[in-house]
Backbone:
């Protein structure tokens, strides 16, 4: 007898399932790093939480660029990235190289690390939550869940 989790796994593409696990793992690691940095640097923990919340909200706003759908022929849930998301990814990569300069204009240099990791951790959590919700919505629509 298969469990509910095993039953649902049959309908989700392995790559998508691995992406979800990776986002969750990276967000937990980043949260741990932010907590450590908040303790070491004395950064305001409420500000770090606020930045994480801003990242989650930001991802829910940007999530429309990331498509999760049910593949008709294979009968599994899979994902695809829009061209717009690719452009945003490139902009983020440029930002990541310039973050010390850009964020350093507004925040003291030692705190740049905490600010960027708080935002990115929020984005990762938001992406994980959005993907999970999108998959559940598709499974409910197909009367699988």
Residues:
């Amino acid at each position: 007898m298969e469990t509910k989790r095993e039953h649902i796994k049959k309908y989700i593409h392995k790559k998508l399932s691995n992406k979800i696990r990776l986002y969750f793992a990276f967000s937990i690691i980043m949260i741990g790093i932010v907590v450590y940095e908040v303790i070491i640097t004395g950064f305001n923990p409420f500000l770090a939480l606020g930045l994480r919340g801003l990242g989650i909200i930001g991802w829910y706003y940007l999530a429309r660029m990331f498509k999760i759908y049910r593949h008709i022929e294979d009968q599994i849930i899979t994902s695809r990235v829009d061209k717009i998301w690719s452009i945003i990814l490139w902009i983020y990569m440029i930002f990541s190289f310039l973050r010390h300069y850009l964020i350093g204009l507004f925040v003291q240099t030692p705190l740049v690390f905490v600010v960027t990791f708080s935002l990115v951790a929020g984005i990762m959590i938001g992406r994980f939550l959005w993907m999970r919700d999108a998959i559940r919505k598709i499974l409910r629509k197909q009367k699988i869940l």
Q: What stands out?
A: The helical segments are 4-9, 14-41, 45-62, 83-104, 112-141. The beta strands are 66-71, 76-81. The mean pLDDT is 79. The CA atoms of residues 68 and 79 lie 4 Å apart.
